[in-house]
Amino acid sequence: MTALRFRAENSHRFPTTSTGWYLYHKSKNYNVMYASMKEGAKLGLRLPGWALGFIFIEDAIDNRRGTKDFLSTVIAGLTLSGLFSLRHLFNIPTAARTARAGLYTGLAYGLLQDAMALTRGRRLNYVDFLMGKKNDGIVTAESDRTIKR
User: Fold this and answer.
1) 80-137 confidence digits (pLDDT tens)
2) What's the CA gap between 7 and 24, in Å, rounded?
3) What does the chain look like in DSSP terms, one character per residue?
4) CA distance 144 to 142
5) CB under 8 Å to 127, separation ≥6 — which residues?
6) Quick one: how far is CA 88 from the chain centroid?
7) What is the pTM of this model?
């Protein structure tokens, strides 16, 4: 985009010599590189904010529910996609597509977290529920250990 803008701004004085064209493209490339670094810095400041928002929302849901599982991650993904759509004033179809991406990402990330927790020996409440086993304790969000009731 910056290259096109540079061309439009300098279209009234195109170079006529080979050296002139060399300097024109050199200046254009410097302008493109500067604009890219500027835009990259802006994006580099925005993306960690959204990532931290996801982590805080997921942790708040984990603490509120008293358990860590994929459902909290899915809810955090859907919440964050809704906030993102609201922030950028997306229309309904675009917001629905963003919500679907948040759902799939939250589901994949949450199930990956649960698989890692399962390999560490933590029991998953929803697996016990689906298998019909009685869990004699609850998993707290603070320690990931089962506490006897």
Assistant:
1) 999 999 999 999 999 999 999 999 999 999 999 999 988 998 888 887 778 887 765 5
2) 9
3) -HHHHHHHHTGGG---SHHHHHHHHHHHHHHHHHHHHHHHHHHHHHHHHHHHHHHHHHHHHHHHHTS-SHHHHHHHHHHHHHHHHHHTT--HHHHHHHHHHHHHHHHHHHHHHHHHHHHTTPPPHHHHHHHTPPPSEEE-TTT--EEE-
4) 6
5) 118
6) 15
7) 0.69
